[in-house]
Amino acid sequence: MTAGEMIETASRPIIIAHRGASGLRPEHTLAAYELAIDLGADFIEPDLVSTKDGVLIARHENEISETTNVDEHPAFFNRKTTKIIDGQTVSGWFAEDFTLAEIKTLRAKERLPFRDRAFDGQFPIPTLQEIIDLAKCKSTQTGRTIGIYPETKHPTFFDAIGLSLEEPLVEILHANGYNKADDRIFIQSFETANLKQLDKMTNLPLIQLLSATGKPYDLAITNDVRTYKDMTSPDELVKIAEYADGIGPDKRMIVPVDENGKLLQPTSLIQDAHAVGLLVHPYTFRNEAQYLAPDYNHNPEAEYEQFFNLGVDGLFTDFPATAFGALQPNYNFRFQI
């Protein structure tokens, strides 16, 4: 088989490339997305923030010093500032203070110090449109439809500064032919109000992200007492199902660990979500030892296999090829580079 081709002989969970193949290339770059597709990812995930001139670009945070070389550009030294983002004080350089033309002069770098830095400085910052173009091109090349799984980052913050994310996101997706409930698109958010807004703007499926700690920022600022943990109760899942098509929980909400990192018994979250018609796409699966519970004996495939056996509908991974290796025996699935 050629790179990126695959044969499916049974229904199986989807593999979502978390920020691209971010364990192997700097995250949120076309190189990371393309490699993820070549490794068999079904969906690529761009986190979206806005530039000063209202263009959606892929960065995990609107503060960009961790993932770009902005601090190496003397012309931008005076752009460094401090802001309150979702109630937290953050200092650095922010995407919304740069035009797209200025963003395009920057290059991506590896965020995590223990990962390969050989590709630092090589790749520009992509726009959502460039990511869509890549997905369509690779769909043609591979003969399989590559999905896109965008996340709106800090939507309340961007609304407050007049750079709302929802309208341009829906406009771009619809303009590119993504407008039906069965299109290979999921839109995700850690907030709730913007998902409810999106539910009225598009037929595309929506995913409510759930963190293991804290609460949605839009709930916090309205003094709503519900936490993410509260939102996993059967009654709250019914409410989520009124506007969303699935949940994206931290994997520890499905398989908790104790204070020593050892695995505890799985919760009923998958079954509870499925009972009200919600998909379950947990995050984030990584190969490195520091991300694996000791019970897995340094074998990342063992973690995937546990979650596949528990019945997840898909998962987010930094290492798509490893996810497919774990899928093969369980889903009669064959994939080869």
Radius of gyration based on Cα positions:
19 Å
H and E string: EEHEEEEEHHEEHHEHEHHEHEHEHE
Structural class: alpha/beta
Per the principal axes of the C-alpha atoms, what is the gross shape? globular
Major β-sheet profile:
4 strands, parallel
Helix content estimate: 25-40%
Quick tags:
11 helices, disordered N terminus, globular, alpha/beta, disordered C terminus
Give a written overview of the molecule.
The structure is a single chain. With 337 residues, the protein is of the alpha/beta class. 28% of the residues lie in helices and 15% in strands. The protein is built from 11 helices and 15 strands. The protein has helices at 30-38, 100-103, 128-142, 155-160, 166-175, 193-201, 217-220, 234-240, 269-275, 300-310, 320-331; strands at residues 6-7, 14-17, 43-44, 47-50, 56-58, 81-85, 88-92, 147-148, 151-152, 187-189, 206-210, 246-249, 279-280, 314-317, 334-335. The strands form 5 sheets. It has a 4-stranded parallel sheet with strand order 8-3-2-14, covered by helices on one side. Strands 10-11-12-13 form a 4-stranded parallel sheet, covered by helices on one side. It has a 3-stranded mixed sheet with strand order 5-4-9, with helices on one face. Helix 10 (300-310) crosses helix 11. The protein starts with 5 loop residues before the first strand and ends with a strand. The model is unreliable at 1-10 and 332-337 (pLDDT under 50).
